[in-house]
Amino acid sequence: MPNIVVFIELTHTTQIPATAPGLLALAARLGTPIAVSVSQSPLNDEHIAALGAQGAAHIYATHSAQAYSTLNSYTVDALEQAISAHQPAAVLIPASVDGREIAGRLAVRTGGGVLADVIDAHAHDGAITAIHSVFGGHYTVAASVPEALPILTLRAGAIDEIAPAHNPTVEHLELGAHTAGRTAHIDAQSDAPYNTNRPELRGAATVVSGGRGLGSAQNFVLVEQLADALGGAVGASRAAVDAGYIDHTAQVGQTGVSVSPQLYVALGISGAIQHRAGMQTAKTIIAINKDEDAPIFEIADLGIVGDVFSVVPQVIELLKARA
Ligand SMILES: Cc1cc2nc3c(=O)[nH]c(=O)nc-3n(C[C@H](O)[C@H](O)[C@H](O)COP(=O)(O)OP(=O)(O)OC[C@H]3O[C@@H](n4cnc5c(N)ncnc54)[C@H](O)[C@@H]3O)c2cc1C
């Protein structure tokens, strides 16, 4: 079985990210998952056990007190070292903002090729083929990197399998001081100003998004209430973000976050192609819109033609009654 290197994108809060199970499950399907982490202090036993439970056969746990103070330089170093040590057949990285940058820089360093925003992958005769959903989900494309290392960025939520658990072997390495690329220095990071008690939008199993149809920031609370009733994350259309109903980090779509949750609920969202590009691969889509001709209904599994201010409070009441 070939090794598959998986980047575990720990945040400054050192939590195992919601993207980790999907990445490890895909790696287990393609070969032997080697998890690579970068943290400020050595990875603790709790995190090692959690990664093993999610399918990591081996953990390449790197640390440096400066790990999060430069723009991904330490992460690219760690992955380059892990690739050199474990000679993987592919590298899997979350399709996050940082993940995309890391993939590109790693490809330059290793002479590999990036396969971006992948929703699945297969191994055949030692070759890895990546599957992409493109042009707003209208086409499914298969792509590979012949004769070079494939570096895949995986869309959060695209893989909902669980890898078999392992009791992983662990290598702890302290990364050396970084001298290159220090023109920018990160002094502090903070969590997004919303969703702090909710699942991370990227990788959440349930996402409830609101659009311009909500009408105001005050009314947008309805979206948050339904998200909380369902235990989901809050998303938004660009129109809602531009109108100031919610922080821009909640934007779902072509120029926002791409999500593939089990359940996506669209409230007062018309379903423009740029919005669909970021949510069309959701397993189940429910749309509530008062316009029966809204394009969102073309892709919805369940559509309710109605006023969100009338329908959503009733749904919340029913959910509370069942809790
Ligand atoms: C280059 C580019 C990139 C873009 N990137 C993105 C992106 O990443 N994400 C994104 O979302 N958009 C993006 N857009 C914008 C996109 O084209 C749409 O303008 C946007 O998605 C519309 O948002 P909306 O559906 O909330 O608003 P609208 O299109 O105005 O739709 C509002 C909907 O709410 C419904 N409604 C109104 N009141 C109610 C009510 N009381 N109850 C129920 N329904 C109601 C209406 O019937 C309507 O369908 C991009 C555009 C461009 C040009």
Describe this structure in words.
The protein has 323 residues and is of the alpha/beta class. It has 2 domains: 3-174, Rossmann fold (3-Layer(aba) Sandwich), CATH 3.40.50.620; 206-322, TPP-binding domain (Rossmann fold). Helices cover 27% and strands 26% of the residues. The strands form 2 sheets. It has a 9-stranded mixed beta sheet with strand order 7-6-5-8-4-1-2-3-9, with helices on both faces. The chain starts with a strand and ends with a helix. The protein binds flavin-adenine dinucleotide (FAD). Residues 211-213, 237-240, 251-256, 268-270, 272, 274-275, 278, 288-291, 294, 307-309 line the site of flavin-adenine dinucleotide.
Give a quick summary of the entry.
The chain is of the alpha/beta class and 323 residues long. The protein has 9 helices and 14 strands.
Order of helices and strands: EHEHEHEHEEEEEEHEHEHEHEH
Strand order of the largest sheet: 7-6-5-8-4-1-2-3-9
Name the overall outline.
globular
The share of residues in extended strands comes to: 25-35%
Structural class: alpha/beta
Rg, alpha carbons: 20 Å
Distance between the termini: 45 Å
CATH class of the largest domain: Alpha Beta
CATH level 4 superfamily of the largest domain? HUPs
CATH architecture identity of the largest domain: 3-Layer(aba) Sandwich
Low-confidence stretches: none
Described by strand count, sense and barrel closure, the largest sheet is: 9 strands, mixed
User: Mean pLDDT score, rounded?
Assistant: 92
Count of runs of 4 or more consecutive helical residues:
9
Helix content: 25-40%
CATH fold-level assignment of the largest domain = Rossmann fold
| Ligands and ions found | flavin-adenine dinucleotide
Instruction: Supply the number of structural domains.
Output: 2
Number of beta-strand segments: 14
